[in-house]
UniProtKB/TrEMBL annotation:
Pfam families the UniProt entry points to: LytR_C
Highest taxon in the source lineage: Bacteria
Name the UniProt record assigns to this protein: LytR C-terminal domain-containing protein
Species of the source: Paractinoplanes pyxinae
InterPro entries from the UniProt entry: LytR/CpsA/Psr_C
Domain LytR/CpsA/Psr regulator C-terminal stretches: 52-138
Length: 163
């Protein structure tokens, strides 16, 4: 009985070693997949009113008087405004910089601006504020009719590829 048990143990150990022993002809298993990046919480809904949109107005080269008058007009339209005269890097067109929590707000804000506007999604921009960087080419806000036309033309906000 002891001889049978010993022989069984030897067979089991030999089989286990043979199965796990590396063989040069066997393909190596692929390395473990990298962890998928955490998806961003992207907010695509349009704000129900301008007070729900938080703005930071930055000078991207626009004259100071136009910067001031635009800030006043945005406040009069009901936007929550953190006005700052801190100069951003000079821009050639007005820029809206926003993050995942402000996609819908940036979409609405784009409709408020007349002329060329560059939309810049920044996944690292974690608050819900939209940075409005006014360039020298900026001349005015859109009229109510232009805002409605801009919203219809733009359609619903869409998620950037990072979302």
């Amino acid at each position: 009985m002891a001889a049978v048990a010993t022989a069984g143990a030897v067979v089991a150990v030999t089989a286990g070693v043979a199965l796990t022993w590396p063989r040069p002809d066997a393909p190596t298993p692929p390395p473990p997949a990298a962890a998928a990046p955490t998806p961003l919480n992207c907010v695509l809904t349009l704000p129900s009113e301008p007070a729900d949109v938080e703005l930071r107005v930055l000078n991207g080269g626009v004259p100071a008087a136009r910067l001031q008058s635009t800030a006043v007009a945005l406040r009069e339209r009901g936007f929550s405004l953190r006005f700052t005269q801190t100069a951003a890097d000079p821009e050639t067109t007005t820029v809206l910089r926003y993050g995942p929590a402000a996609i819908g707000a940036a979409h609405l804000m784009r409709a408020e601006l007349h002329g060329d506007v560059t939309m810049r999604f920044d996944p690292a921009h974690r608050d819900k504020a939209v940075d409005v960087i006014l360039a020298p080419s900026f001349d005015r806000l859109a009229t109510p009719t232009e805002i409605n036309q801009n919203l219809v033309t733009a359609g619903e906000p869409t998620a950037p590829p990072q979302c």
